Amino acid sequence: MTSFEYSSNATMKHLAGRITSARKILVTSHEKPDGDAIGSCAAVARALTELGIRHEVWVQGPISDGLLQFVPDLSIRMAPPELPDEDHDLVIIVDTGAWTQLQPLQDWLRPRRDSIIGFDHHARGDDVASERIVRVEAASCTELLVSLMDELGVSLEAGGDEVGRCSIAEALLLGLATDTGWFRFESCGAESLSVASRLVAAGADKSRIFRIIEETDRPARIHMAARALQSARFIDGDRAVLMSLTPKDFAETTARPEELSGLVNYPMSVGTLEVSILVTAVDADSVKVSFRSKPPMDPTPGAPFVDVNALAAGFGGGGHVHAAGARIDLPLDQALEAIEQAVGAAIQDAGFVDSGSTV
User: Which of 4, 118, 277, 280 has a 20 to 30 A CA-CA distance from 260?
Assistant: First the structure.
């Protein structure tokens, strides 16, 4: 039996043709959508509006207040408890190709494989879409969607005529900016900066995007960050840190799950640190885990670093080399123990020396 390979199996021109031939399209992305997911959905929806194609945007929440403020006019349907009707002849999935990230819509999507097309930049995925574009070299899904807009003949300036309504260019810049840590991450190279320049030239207001997304937190997020940092435990010669949050932390701070975005990055300012991990108890028997790592300090080929995509894959998750996630069906204490062992092995396998556990 031939093993499945998660890679492109269609051209952008061909997929653009499927889109323009569709009667009604459903647009969706991964559970708990981030800036790249919402930016991708919004850009595609704006393009479909320009083309006069009927469409709906369905996502699986929660969605942060900042992202909702960014697209206040975008009609987003939530699944579950509702599910889409049968009146769609094409489904577009953006920024994921993994069944684990599409759970609330799985039963609706699985019988429709031949009607699903996908656009993604992650290295791992499943046979969700019959035809797809996968570009792992793209720093965000929105980066590769710029090419789709070109194939569709839609202007990047379109969609932003009304007050408070983001244009296609702004939606695309939202995904690119947030997925590159506002252009700080190693994934942001010359091509990404070139695309960003084109989007800004098309009218994307980067200062407005930053304020809406990064400077609209509730005080509860700061209290939750304090809880996460208070739980921080440095291990493996201070090369890794484990943080954890419990349902009690959510209850006492009134924080919401969508307000955790970026908290895993807080300890990365520590000089010795290579890996930061935030473990959040979902219930008594399962946790969600966010993994982050730094690129190698030494640009020499073969310099040590931790591939958290591979680390997360060991727990059934995935993502990118320096940013990944997973869900583990274990109680919090057992999950932390398993993660500590795995990250210790990953640090040693990466080639770091003098890796001794500390408290």
Answer: 118
How far, in Å, CA of 90 to CA of 113, rounded? 10
Mean pLDDT per block of 10 residues along the chain (359 residues) reads 84 98 96 94 96 94 87 84 88 95 91 97 93 96 98 93 81 96 90 97 94 91 96 96 96 92 92 96 93 86 88 90 92 96 93 56
| CATH fold for domain 219-350 | Diaminopimelate Epimerase; Chain A, domain 1 (3.10.310)
Taken as a whole, the chain contains a residue count of 359
All residues at 6 or more sequence positions from 161 whose CB lies less than 8 Å from its CB, including other chains: none
- CB distance 137 to 187 below 8 Å: no
pLDDT at 318: 85
Domain limits of the chain? 12-214, 219-350
The amino acid occupying position 346 is: A
Q: Which of the following CATH numbers is that of domain 12-214: 3.90.1640.10, 3.30.70.20, 3.30.930.10, 3.30.465.10?
A: 3.90.1640.10
- Two tokens, residue 89: 């002849």
Per-residue model confidence (pLDDT) at position 163: 60
The predicted pLDDT at position 13 comes to 98
Over the stretch 182-236, which tens digit does the pLDDT of each residue have?
A: 998 888 999 999 999 999 999 999 999 999 998 988 999 999 999 999 999 999 9
**Nearest CA-CA partner of 268 in 292, 301, 247:** 292
Cβ–Cβ under 8 Å, residues 315 and 259: no
